[in-house]
Write a structure and sequence with these properties.
Elements: H1 2-11, E1 16-17, E2 20-21, E3 24-27, E4 30-33, H2 38-55, E5 57-59, E6 65-66, E7 80-81, E8 84-85, E9 87-88, E10 91-94, E11 97-100, E12 103-106, E13 118-124
Parallel strand pairs: 6-9
Antiparallel strand pairs: 1-2, 3-4, 4-13, 5-13, 6-13, 7-8, 10-11, 11-12
Length: 125
């Protein structure tokens, strides 16, 4: 999975904070992709899909969710994974943090993410 992180970082579509790449956060079988634009999110998802095809990793559309915070949120823009539209939600639980559109609710002080655009769980097929 280190190779995937390197590909995502090299794409320049992920989020950077103070010149640090934070466009991809991985823990166990979850991947959190972050970008400042819908276009960037789609590009990150596409990179993951190509990587998954190459390494025989199945990204599960049923466990994939999209959430946006702030800015323009065009309803006509759809994120797709393997030619299927990713569900948009107003809330999401990731690790010990519950994320709500318009809010960030911390469960513990050590939660690693503050903003999220898309979460994808993966499984070996």
């Amino acid at each position: 999975m280190d190779e995937l992180i390197c590909k995502l970082r090299a794409s320049s579509f992920g989020l950077h904070i103070a010149n640090v790449f934070v466009g991809c956060i991985m823990y166990a079988d979850g991947i959190m992709l972050l970008s400042s634009s819908w276009y960037g999110v789609q590009k990150l998802v596409d990179i993951c899909a190509v990587y998954g095809q190459h390494w025989n990793i199945c990204f599960n559309n049923m466990k994939t969710q999209c959430l946006t915070f702030g800015g323009k949120n065009p309803q006509q823009f759809k994120i797709t994974l393997n030619n299927k539209i990713v569900d948009r939600n107003n809330n999401l639980k990731y690790l010990v943090c519950t994320l709500l559109v318009g809010h960030v609710v911390w469960i513990t002080v050590t939660t690693p993410a503050t903003f999220m655009t898309i979460l994808t769980n993966y499984c070996r097929s």
